[in-house]
Design a protein that fits this description.
heterodimer, A: mainly alpha, 76% helix, B: alpha+beta, D-Maltodextrin-Binding Protein, domain 2, Dipeptide-binding Protein, domain 1, Dipeptide-binding Protein, domain 3, 3 domains, 7-stranded mixed beta sheet, 13 helices, globular
Chain lengths: 307, 503
């Protein structure tokens, strides 16, 4: 197991480094940041001084070697916009996204497991049809639309929730509800599909014949054997949330890493782009390793080998 | 066991309820302002940027002079008066009894420090761009008098200095800061990724402001910002979209100093022919186009708004005359002008609300008049390649969508960059006009105003290097608790000291 973890970690480190190199050159291809940071009527001399001040006047390979040298000293550069360490900016935003993602994906998984399992236990029933309808709607509804409608209904018309922002428990409700809607819809479909197959398996028939209670058959026997595809899809969805929930963060004023990354790309704040990519890529690699380990826990037949 | 679980859930709900917000969070003499974007930083040297200026200007930091939005003339702020000693020297007399928020005295040495810091080049200073090539040398004469020399005559130095924010001598001179200390009526309490909080500064030299505390938050979505004011979560938000300005009691329009236009590339055929440029102006159904931007927009005849020194009220905007436009193009074609050449209409994504729709409408009207127009929408960086010199050599004839903001009180912030042959946006060279622009820049008072007015008239009637569209209108939602109205300067500053609370 430790050998596998070591090898997987090494692969991850190499991948992150490759990604950083790629991001470095791709960001530089987007053009001269002075056109975005200086006023439109800035003089050519002012643009030249800006480029010199930040080292953008150097050939790109020199800039790259300087960047690598700084990386060795764990210096990730300074945000052009915020006048402070780019890594500090990224690390400040990431926990905000992580908290949102963890709560949303946990709630979505829990609800989807219950709803999907119950729907699969009686395929074609009223509950099954209702669950399918709600899950399809959830998976299909555009989150920006749901968010705006949610604000209009719950904040403006009813006045029972704040429109946006952070600070209290109430501020969490709408962002999480919007964020979990799509994962919930997709996971209900996955759970339902795999559970219908599992509930038709010979071991379930045997359990029924032995008189095992219905809930125990569904949630103890069939569900556990249906979890692998659910974990795969949930892991994929969690990855996209950890990578930043840009729409939700933008609409609800949630200071997360997704919006930070998009803003940094648009504004050519290179150091922040690189730092946010490093943070999110590291988180995603850790998450993927955790999912691999979860496979092994859920299915004892899976054993990871180092060779 | 099951009861214990139910109890836990009930406790959790109760705890969450206790943490429930009072949804209208601000009250008393505190207000919340919701901005369209997060201030990128709080460096006073970047205060010409809207996101920075709306928090800092007139609140934390103050300049020596401010521009009167009605007349466009510089008025006293931290300088009480000034005089021109000779062509290149100005003397400023400073306000006595002013202290910075950190307790340091405001005096001639502080002015010298602030200006030297601004021009040092040690860090990126956006405000310096307003000074163009002006080189400043600051010399304290006595405690409250300072002389500023410029390398060449600078007749509007008091106007230029309205963007130079005075900062405490304790401010680092070699790097940008996010904890500004100025002489303004408010001091910085906190700057986090979610808010900026300003507290009233009790040692302020001027009248004590009514608002004790201001919290700034930011949301990009216009409808959300409007909703926040409606629900009482915030009391003021600038720059809401026209479709969100639905409540006449709280939503106020204001002329926002921005002028929209199409810049014509006069260097390439068929746009190098005056008749074609005139036809471009005459072919647009301006009344219909105005519907995209709100009932209050003003049809523009020049690139500065009324109230800016040099604006010429006698210039009449081009009217809608499609027959005349077609006739001019036919005449040009008969004279051998390649009128059928493809002209690229270059727009900028998100430049202003309904900007794409405006370009599509204009393109179809020009096509109806007989021109071959192709619309290309670009992001700001690509768009800028066509906007500023050096222009791409392979560009072909282009029309570029622009929006120009001049709220600094003088046409000198507009005319040279658009119409002087060395101007960054200029696509033509007229040596006689260059001389007149240079002369106008050296003039003062009424002679200066008249000179710029004449230049605008000549540009409009004889050159037509652009298609002025509209002087734009902004909309601000002001909550019912506040007594405050936006004006020409709102895009660059929201002075908290001017906000009053209703009884």
């Amino acid at each position: 197991m430790f050998g596998y973890l070591g090898k997987r970690s090494l692969h991850s480190v190499i991948s992150v480094l490759g990604l950083l190199v790629l991001v470095f050159f791709l960001t530089r291809l987007t053009g001269d940041p002075s056109y975005l940071f200086l006023p439109l009527d800035a003089t050519p001399q002012a643009r030249e001084a800006f480029s010199k001040l930040h080292g953008f006047d150097q050939p790109i390979y020199i800039q790259f070697f300087n960047y690598l040298g700084d990386l060795l000293h764990l210096d990730f550069g300074e945000s052009l916009r915020q006048n402070r360490s780019a890594m500090a900016v990224a690390l400040e935003a990431f926990p905000q996204t992580l908290k949102l993602a963890v709560v949303a994906i946990t709630l979505a998984c829990t609800l989807a497991l219950v709803v999907g399992s119950l729907a699969a236990s009686r395929p074609g029933s009223l509950f099954d049809r209702f669950a399918s309808l709600v899950s399809l709607a959830g998976a299909s509804a555009p989150d920006f639309w749901v968010a705006i409608v949610g604000i209009l209904v719950f904040a403006v018309s009813l006045g029972i929730l704040p429109t946006s922002g952070t600070g209290t428990a109430a501020h969490w409700i709408m962002p999480i509800a919007v964020l979990m809607l799509r994962p919930f819809g997709l996971l209900v479909q996955v759970v339902r599909g795999t559970m219908i197959g599992a509930l038709a398996s010979p071991y379930v028939k045997t359990a029924r014949a032995k008189g095992v209670r219905r809930q125990q058959i569904i949630f103890s026997h069939a569900l556990r054997n249906s979890l692998l595809p659910v974990v795969t899809v949930a892991g994929d969805l969690a990855t996209s949330l950890v990578n930043g929930a840009v729409v939700v963060e933008s609409i609800f004023g949630w200071p997360g890493i997704g919006k930070l990354m998009i803003d940094a790309i648009i504004q050519r704040d290179f150091a922040v782009v690189q730092s946010t990519v490093l943070v999110t890529a590291s988180a995603i690699f850790i998450l993927n390793i955790a999912i691999d380990l979860l496979y092994a826990i859920l299915d004892p037949r899976i054993r990871y080998q180092t060779t | 066991m099951r009861h214990r679980g139910v109890l836990s859930v009930a406790c959790a709900i109760l705890m969450a309820s206790a943490a429930w917000p009072a949804l209208a969070q601000t009250g008393g003499k505190s207000i919340t302002i919701v901005l369209p974007e997060q201030p990128s930083n709080l460096e006073p040297c970047g205060s010409i940027l809207t996101d920075v200026g709306q928090v800092l200007n007139q609140n934390i930091t103050e300049p020596l002079t401010i521009i009167d939005p009605q007349s466009g003339t510089p008025e006293p702020k931290l300088a009480t008066k000034w005089e021109r000693v000779d062509d290149t020297t100005w003397r400023f007399h400073l306000r006595d009894g002013v202290k910075f928020q950190d307790g340091k005295d405001f005096n001639a040495e502080a002015v010298a420090f602030s200006i030297k810091r601004m021009i040092s080049g040690a860090f990126n200073c956006n405000n310096l761009a307003k000074f163009g090539s002006a080189k400043l040398t600051v010399t304290p004469i006595d405690k409250l008098t300072v002389e500023i020399k410029t390398a060449k005559p600078e007749p509007i130095l008091p106007t230029l200095l309205s963007v130079a924010m005075m900062v405490s001598p304790n401010t680092p001179a070699d790097k940008a800061v996010n904890d500004p200390v100025g002489t303004g009526p408010y001091k910085l309490n906190a700057f986090t990724p979610q808010t900026v909080v300003l507290d009233r500064f009790d040692g302020y030299w001027g009248k004590k402001p009514e608002i004790e505390k201001a919290t700034y938050v930011w949301r990009a979505e216009s409808s959300l910002r409007a909703a926040m004011v409606q629900t009482g979560e915030a009391q003021l938000t600038p720059a809401i979209a026209i479709q969100d300005a639905t409540n006449p009691a709280t939503d106020f329009s204001y002329l926002n100093s921005e002028t929209t236009a199409i810049r014509i590339d006069t260097g390439l055929a068929p746009l190098n022919v005056f008749r074609v440029r005139k036809a471009l102006n005459l072919a647009i159904y301006w009344q219909g186009l105005a519907g995209l931007f709100g009932a209050d927009v003003i049809r523009a005849s020049q690139m500065v708004v009324p109230g800016i020194n040099g604006h010429n009220p006698d210039i009449k905007p081009w009217s809608y005359d499609p027959e005349q436009a077609t006739k001019l193009l036919e005449e040009a074609r008969a004279d051998g002008v390649p009128v059928n050449t493809e002209i690229r209409l270059i727009g900028r994504n998100g430049i202003y609300p309904n900007g794409n729709e405006a370009l599509e409408a204009m393109m179809s009207m020009w096509q109806a008049a007989g021109l071959n127009i192709k619309l290309t929408m670009l992001d700001v960086a690509d768009w800028n390649r066509y906007m500023q010199k050096p222009f791409p050599p392979e560009r072909g004839p282009t029309l570029v969508q622009i929006m120009h903001d001049n709220n600094k009180g003088d046409a000198a912030f507009t005319v040279p960059i658009f119409y002087h042959s060395s101007g960054q946006y200029s696509t033509f060279s007229d040596p006689k006009l260059d001389i007149r622009i240079d002369e106008a820049r050296d003039l003062t008072d009424k002679a200066r105003t008249a000179a710029f007015q004449e230049i605008f008239a000549e540009v409009h009637d004889q050159i037509a290097p652009d298609i002025p569209m509209f002087h734009m209108i902004g909309y601000t939602r002001v909550g019912p608790r506040l007594n405050w109205r936006p004006n020409l300067t709102t895009n660059s500053e929201i002075p908290l000291a001017e906000i009053r609370l209703k009884n």
